[in-house]
């Protein structure tokens, strides 16, 4: 690691000094032109000469050097979660990246796999991001936030179930999803409601508050609630369906539409009539729910818009002293189809 | 952008000089200890003093400064594609990130949204990655590769349908997927084979070679092949199903399992018997295919292992002068179930 091979394929990496020499200008002029500094007046022919020299040499400014000089970067770092990413979430992520790009930020996703929480925060801090947007869990702690701010992050924004000290928070309260499903099931007359709890790691941050939401809605109406751990595979679903009548459930909230598809198939194969014997509700309103027979009832979730989040990032970067904002972001409503 | 606010919440960002002062050692010693330089002998008590001082001050080394000194970073940059990410791909991505992490690389994903090809390469180059791993398309061109190498990237590796000059390539030949599906369908007696072509942008790099593969297999056996453009929505699928008998198709390769589910539902609603009237084959061997009735035949794809790709990255970084490697990586086999 201590050799410094600035060579790649036998050529040296061109520097701004090389550009300055070829264009016959100072290094400062090169920097002004290539960083589009509007404050300094430089003639168009000089600008052109610098750009042509840079192109001829294949020179690219070094973001790191620039951020060292400026004290901060335009990099928004997004720790990537371990969570399996669904279609709802990936659409949102795409929109967010576009919106930040239009505001001239560079979006970088960083995998924290294999790192403990504070170790991960340290690795993120090393890149000196101007802002950190943490989606879902992704292992951010109060001391991690502190560390990032010391390393120059002007804003830390969490989008997820909880707020962490020192951050702006877009709180997505998953209990509202469960509450919408639970209220619908008891309204349809269910007295014993099962709630699918995926066994895949990383989903508890969604499944536990969703269960709480179902409980809040169902128990108020005097119905009982039974958690049903399940892996996303055929066999465990068949085993669950085989003991369904023992469980005595007349309704089930299946965590999401994909689990609902898995469970509905197993129940139908076991001869359980849907919705007559058991009503089934999914969540996320995916296309596949409309393709099932009976058509799947589901909870439609209005996600935060990427544009809105991008604007919050920009505001927070411009005013790092602002008091932490907290906004509730999840609106849920039931979409009733044939399965309930 | 020309103010240099090194302050965040009123505190200054601690530097290695602050750590050196508090620990009573030189800055060089701080650097050796915190970067785990094995070549230099430093006593355990001194190491401990430096670490404690760094922790007390909340000091984090600046990856940028380190890479400026070393001439390269440990950053592997992965341009993120615009493509909707399926479960097959996200599992692979997760494994790759773990494997690179174990080899002490930092994995950073960079969204190229809103940038033209060479603009994107320039933005990536600014981060001075030691290696670039481009999955799928992601807009890399020969001049982009050239630019990245001039900026110090020691290896550029593409994983996708084509090789680009100057890169190591793990070529995933999607025609093998179509060929496996096409061969199976003609073997089942199909004489007129439809091939679903998703209309969502970004999928052509998979769908076009898959179509070519079906063609190669089917036309050799004297069967005809008809491309069927389709959006992943109920209505267009219903419209396609409504004119199915006019098309006179007795078999269809549905691009993947999700499109197969969409099309099968529409065909069944239109009274087309599967597989008697039309055989259906998907791809990717997802769980959902086993949940359909009839159970879906599919093409199982053996993806490159993340560990294998991580090792190639490491070899390429250590030996940037090595001749570009090219390896074929896609093994496909038909999984016959009830739909064909």
TrEMBL record, chains A, B:
Domain HTH lacI-type: 14-70
SUPFAM superfamilies: lambda repressor-like DNA-binding domains, Periplasmic binding protein-like I
Top-level taxonomic group: Bacteria
Transcription regulation keyword on record: yes
Cited InterPro entries: HTH_LacI, LacI/GalR-like_sensor, Lambda_DNA-bd_dom_sf, Peripla_BP_I
Gene Ontology MF terms in the entry: DNA binding
Keywords from the UniProt entry: DNA-binding, Transcription, Transcription regulation
PROSITE patterns in the cross-refs: HTH_LACI_2
One Pfam family linked to the record: LacI
Range of residues in the leader sequence: none
PANTHER family from the UniProt entry: LACI-RELATED TRANSCRIPTIONAL REPRESSOR, LACTOSE OPERON REPRESSOR
Name of this chain's protein: LacI family DNA-binding transcriptional regulator
Native species: Streptomyces roseoviridis
């Amino acid at each position: 690691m201590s050799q410094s091979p600035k060579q790649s394929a036998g050529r040296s990496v061109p520097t701004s000094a090389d550009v300055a020499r070829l264009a016959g200008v100072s290094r400062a002029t090169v920097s002004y032109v290539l960083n589009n500094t509007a404050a300094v007046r430089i003639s168009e022919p000089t600008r052109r000469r610098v750009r042509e020299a840079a192109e001829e040499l294949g020179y690219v400014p070094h973001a790191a050097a620039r951020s060292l000089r400026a004290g901060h970067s335009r990099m928004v770092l997004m720790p990537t979660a371990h969570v399996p990413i669904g279609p709802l979430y990936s659409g949102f992520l795409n929109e967010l990246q576009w919106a930040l790009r239009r505001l001239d930020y560079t979006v970088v996703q960083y995998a924290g796999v294999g790192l403990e929480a504070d170790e991960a925060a340290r690795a993120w801090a090393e890149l000196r991001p101007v802002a950190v947007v943490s989606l879902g869990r992704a292992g951010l702690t109060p001391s991690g936030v502190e560390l990032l701010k010391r390393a120059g992050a002007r804003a830390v924004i969490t989008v997820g179930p909880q707020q962490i000290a020192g951050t702006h928070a877009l709180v997505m309260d998953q209990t509202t999803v469960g509450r919408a499903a639970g209220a619908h099931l008891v309204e349809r007359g269910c007295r014993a409601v099962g709630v699918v709890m995926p066994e895949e790691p990383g989903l508890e941050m969604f499944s536990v508050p969703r269960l709480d939401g179902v409980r809040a809605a169902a128990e108020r109406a005097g119905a009982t609630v039974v958690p049903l751990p399940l892996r996303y595979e055929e066999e465990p679903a068949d085993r669950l369906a085989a003991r369904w009548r023992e469980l005595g459930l007349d309704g089930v909230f299946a965590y999401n539409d994909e689990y609902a598809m898995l469970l509905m198939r197993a129940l139908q194969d076991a001869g359980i009539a849907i919705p007559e014997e058991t009503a089934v509700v999914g969540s996320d309103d995916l296309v596949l729910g409309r393709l099932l027979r009976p058509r799947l009832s589901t909870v439609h979730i209005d996600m935060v818009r990427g544009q809105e989040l991008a604007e919050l990032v920009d505001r927070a970067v411009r005013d790092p002293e602002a008091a932490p904002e907290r906004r509730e972001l999840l609106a849920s409503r039931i979409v009733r189809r044939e399965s309930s």
